[in-house]
Amino acid sequence: MEKALGMGLNPFMAAIMGMTSAVVGGIIRDVLCREVPLIFRKEIYATACLVGALVFYLGFYFQLDNNVNYLITTIVIIGIRVSAIKFDLELPKMKA
After folding, report:
1. pLDDT tens digits along 54-72
2. Which single residue of 19, 32, 72, 91 could bond 49 by disulfide (Cβ 3.0 to 4.6 Å)?
3. In a domain, 96, yes or no
4. Is residue 95 domain-resident?
5. pTM of this prediction?
6. HEC letters along the chain
7. Residue 82 lies in a domain
8. Across the chain, what does the average pLDDT equal?
9. Other C-beta atoms within 10 Å of 87: how many?
10. Count of domains in the chain?
């Protein structure tokens, strides 16, 4: 997301690019490990990345130090993921 913002993209597009980058990286990891990609299971994954992108943008907008911004963003994303796993949270599913 930082690169996209640095190239002048609007925050929405930068957030989508950051989320896509994180999700595709996870899919590649899981495929190489011969596992069903995490995004195709019930866990909250892409949503945590999108919230993290919002947090990162707020830090970028308010000109936080990069290392502090990275740390806060990482803590938020990990916190969401751990909470979702611990409390068995999931997003509603679409009916076919």
Report:
1. 999 999 999 999 999 999 9
2. 19
3. no
4. no
5. 0.83
6. CHHHHHCCCCHHHHHHHHHHHHHHHHHHHHHHCCCCCHHHCCCCCHHHHHHHHHHHHHHHHCCCCHHHHHHHHHHHHHHHHHHHHHCCCCCCCCCC
7. yes
8. 90
9. 8
10. 1
